[in-house]
Give the backbone structure.
Amino acid sequence: MQPILKLQDIDKSFPSVKALNRASLNVYCGKVMALVGENGAGKSTMMKVLTGIYQPDAGLIEYQGTAVQFRGPKDSQDQGISIIHQELNLIQELSIAENIFLGREPTRYGKIQWQQLYADVEKLLQRLNIKHHPRTRLGNLSIGEQQMVEIAKALSFQSKVIIMDEPTDALTDTETDSLFQVIQQLREQGQGIVYISHRLKEIFRICDDVTIFRDGEFIEQTPVADLTEDLIIEKMVGRSLDDQFPQVDLELGEVCLQVNNLCGNGVVDASFSLRSGEILGFSGLMGAGRTELMKLIYGDAQIRSGEVILNGQTLNLRSPKDALTAGISYVSEDRKADGLVLSMSVKENMSLSSLAEFCTSSGRIEHRKEKQAVQKFIDLFRIKTPGQNQIIKNLSGGNQQKVAIAKGVMKQPKVLILDEPTRGVDVGARQEIYQLINRFRRDGMAIILVSSDMPEILGMSDRIVVMCMGKLSGEFSREQANQELLMAAAVGKKAEELA
Amino acid sequence: MTTNSATTKIATQNQDTEIKLFSKAWLFQEKSLIALLLLIAVVSFISPNFFSVDNMLNTLRQTSVNAIIAVGMTMVIITAGIDLSVGAVLALSGAFAASLIAQEVNVVLAVIITLFSGLVLGAMSGVIVAQGKVQPFIATLVTMTALRGVTMVFTDGRPISTGYTENADMFSWLGTGYLLGVPVPVWIMVSIFAIGWYLLNHTRTGRHIYALGGNEDATRLSGINVNRIKIIVYSLCGLTAAIASIIITARLSSAQPTAGLGYELDAIAAVVLGGTSLMGGRGRIMGTLIGALIIGFLNNALNLLDVSSYYQMLAKASVILLAVIVDNRNK
């Protein structure tokens, strides 16, 4: 059977990373192709290549038997390829109907033909079992219903190929069922579907074939009937750990941080403990609630119930300031959004949390003291910058990240929370960051390492906690843990099933 | 691609501390200063009365009110905020000052009370912005409208005279007097700029003000109480408006209920001319001084050249537009 859409040997590189390396994907008429892989395996990049947002560095895209080049999302859409993104691309203040036909409303002499518009949308909504009037304001719908509207929009294009990126993330079970009915219909009508999901159960329910990506590479394409969940997991993570992780064996200290039944910010009943000198890894898929839990511990989100105990003292956390004062530092996962002040210099960023230490009681900054302290960290962290006064925006990602970590460490915390410390960091700087982390623990700091990078978490942690949908779904010692176990816990497979 | 790398290069040079004097980057950074000097040079050439000690000091004195308010405004704008209420704060605290002096309250005490009232009136805007999470534009529009109303109620819509007492004479020295041959308001202006410069560049609060404007989330996550900083900047902005109100009230020996109309816009113009970004995080207090002086000297020059005040507005508008376009072009 000939695929309607065929991407072959696609290469795509970004300044510090090769996102796709000879990756391939086939879409067949009347079939549902699952695309699976870890975070960062290259699925999203592949979709962006497919819809023309990115141009591939090398490789071939064949659509309906001829080689094509999509100039952008509009171009690919015009040719019959629709994508339903994970994030919603809808306008809250417009009605359902206006959203679905935005920019292509049926008009006559420039006047919108509302009757026709509503009738068309009504038909679409019925097909998807959405019980809302087309004139309902989108903002009044639940997130799941909005997702269904997004799907209705894709259907309205009469596309030949429809890509769904984690479509059921926000859906309830009933909504998922009606989505699957629609997928069934589309398949019978001969449309080609790409279904991206972390939920392996769904893949067995709805898909015909599975394409597996790992580290930007195509691993295999297999009929779903020839696979089991365990086999898929193994193939998704199946790579050996190289020795890029300098392991240090240490006597762990006393319990330093104790978290009891913490709830709030989407986190349900989280309990764990941490010893000084220990690295505790937090694994899980995106949106599993890891960052949300860390923000609770850091005082940046409202704790609904439960307690955080540091060195025997129950903390009253109302703001990050409270956490910092108590001895908890947090290095955010997105240094551009909330980690650094990009318009400020290296020095100003690094000393931001601990500025009080370089000030007289009247609040005057002692510039010399500040400069000395910053220089110490620039040397220790080997931060490559022309000077302390360089605006941080001009540094490379790795060096920016080092400044962000230095900011947290300068405060001399007892607990250091590192949220995705190596995201967007090149290999060399990564290595240096790992060495720094080991150095901190030798100094008796307790470290929480949140990471979506499996080898990193397995290589660095003494103990690993896995989260899934706001809950802790597994805890493993370094000896127990392996990629298959972590992935299984991350997708919510029960512990009994694993044994 | 080549243009892209060229701009990055300029940007990098620009952000280094040691910029060579008279280099291209230096000229760009100091463009408002150059514009000011150019303005003075050209007008001196055209009008012989312009470049005299008397006219210079006079212009500085006239500029002082706007320049002082612009110091507070600079701080607010660096935090990515805006304060529309300064003119209204000026009117109300001026009315307080005049009535205190008229009741023969000791000058020092009256000044302290007036300054404190400005601080509190500004803090009101700050609390609405910080605690109420209201956009600064709306929050200060509200306080502006409310304070204008309060001023009308307080003054009954009539000017308040400071009276003809010895006390009032002492008070009027703050607006009309001279110290070492320089008008008192100019001394006040210079001190306020010195304090503002010190605060922004050499204190923790100043660093936090820049950080807040650059990235509020990152600032909060760095353990800084951002609400406190917001309340501080709006309070200080109210304080500078109160200082300006003392100069005006002292000079006129009375408080006008409609004093300070449109002053917020002049202050914003001075800040923007000085190169401070309305997006926040970036700006220099000395730039604001230059911006205020450009507006002041431009007005003075056009007066000397006998240009009608109607055209003066057009000239001011053109200068501001030009400054902003040049600034954006080179970003």
About this structure: The longest helix of chain A spans residues 173-188. The radius of gyration of chain A is 25 Å. Chain A touches chain B at residues 298, 300, 319-321, 323-325, 330, 332, 337-345, 348, 352-353, 355-356, 359, 363-365, 367, 386-387, 389-391, 394, 407, 411 (CB under 8 Å).
